[in-house]
Design a protein that fits this description.
The complex is a heterodimer of chains A (about 160) and B (about 160).
Chain A: H1 6-15, H2 25-33, H3 37-49, E1 53-60, E2 69-77, H4 82-90, E3 95-100, E4 112-118, H5 121-135, E5 139-153
Antiparallel strand pairs in A: 2-4, 2-5, 3-4
Helix pairs in contact in A: 2-3
Chain B: H1 12-20, H2 31-39, H3 43-55, E1 59-66, E2 74-80, H4 87-95, E3 100-106, E4 112-118, H5 122-135, E5 140-142, E6 146-150
Antiparallel strand pairs in B: 2-4, 2-5, 3-4
Classes of the chains: A alpha+beta (about 160), B alpha+beta (about 160).
Chain lengths: ~160, ~160
């Protein structure tokens, strides 16, 4: 866990819905928070460096971009090989997230999760096939779970 | 209830902006002007396009993307197998928890997949216990054991 002080937290609360769309956004944030713009910039640079901010920029709505099919591909692979395989699958262009997660036997045998996004379900299934080829003989069982509805999407909101 | 956004026909200019700006936005005094210069447009035009794309929900946000774990909090994926006859009622119970950040219906026996996000690690277990008590259904937690790759960048 990284050290976040109360000023960092105030900065996160002030920017979690977005950066001000003005010519000098860090000055504007500084005015809101009672800080010099220099300090806003320095603190954001540090938050980026320690990974509290993953990246800065545009967050597109992937449905609006036409990526209407999202498939959670799940795989049962040997635990002894999963790190090598997970790294390899994570490098594939179609994969946006790739994680090792626990099995829940007997209902859920899958330990490797890779999210893929396509313009339709057929494209997602082609991508799943590419992942299967990459995993090769290591795959013992597999599935693709398509999302059929967004039930909620708010993200984490810190209360200021 | 969140409805899906219909695909939007994007201009080449908006495509360029989205593809160029999914990360790396500078911490300079006039970052929009600096980025606009590299895209061959004016600062005013860039600000206008960003406002428009936010208004029309082509962009969900413009700014920093945070990693809650690095602040001491936790994100945990969890799933439930909800009987179809109870789906709407259970959905309302689950969504009522502020810890539920995203929730997707998926085509599988495990038909409800949600992300619990809390500022402290202990909040996850409490949220799971509450959902199980309210719905009388088991919650299957899928905490990430290892992250191999995360980069939600999509070509516009």
């Amino acid at each position: 866990m990284e050290k976040i002080d109360s000023i960092d937290r105030a900065l996160i609360v002030a920017t979690q819905s977005g950066l001000p769309l003005v010519s000098r956004p860090y000055d504007a944030l500084g005015e809101t928070l009672g800080l010099p713009a220099r300090e806003v910039q320095a603190r954001m640079a540090r938050l980026l460096e320690i990974g509290v901010i993953r990246r800065m920029g545009a967050v597109p709505n992937h449905y609006a971009l036409g990526y209407v099919a999202n498939g959670m591909t799940v795989w049962d692979v040997d635990d002894a090989q999963i790190d090598v395989l997970g790294e390899a699958v994570g490098q594939m262009a179609c994969v946006t997230h790739c994680y090792k997660r626990p099995r829940h036997m007997p209902d859920w045998p899958y330990n490797l999760f890779a999210m893929v996004h396509g313009h339709d379900r057929a494209e997602v299934l082609v991508q799943a096939e590419q992942i299967a080829e990459r995993l090769g003989a290591a795959v013992r069982a597999r599935d693709v779970l398509f999302s059929s509805k967004i039930l909620k999407k708010t993200g984490l909101r810190l209360v200021g | 209830m969140t409805e899906r956004q219909a695909p939007v026909a994007l201009s080449d200019l908006d495509r360029n902006i989205i593809n160029a700006l999914q990360g790396g936005f500078p911490l300079t005094d006039t970052p929009y002007a600096d980025v606009a210069a590299t895209l061959g447009m004016s600062e005013a035009a860039l600000l206008e396009r960003l406002k428009e794309m936010l208004d029309t929900r082509v962009l969900t946000r413009f700014g920093p993307m945070f990693q809650v774990e690095r602040m001491g909090g936790r994100f945990v994926l969890a799933a439930m197998a909800v009987p179809e006859s109870r789906f709407e009622a259970v959905n309302a119970q689950v969504n009522a928890l502020p810890e539920v950040a995203h929730n997707y219906r998926r085509d599988h026996a495990f038909n409800m997949w949600f992300v619990l996000a809390t500022e402290t690690p202990g909040g996850i277990d409490a949220a799971i216990a509450r959902i199980e008590a309210e719905t009388a259904l088991p919650v299957y937690p899928f905490p990430k054991l290892k992250e191999y790759f995360v980069e939600m960048k999509l070509k516009a």
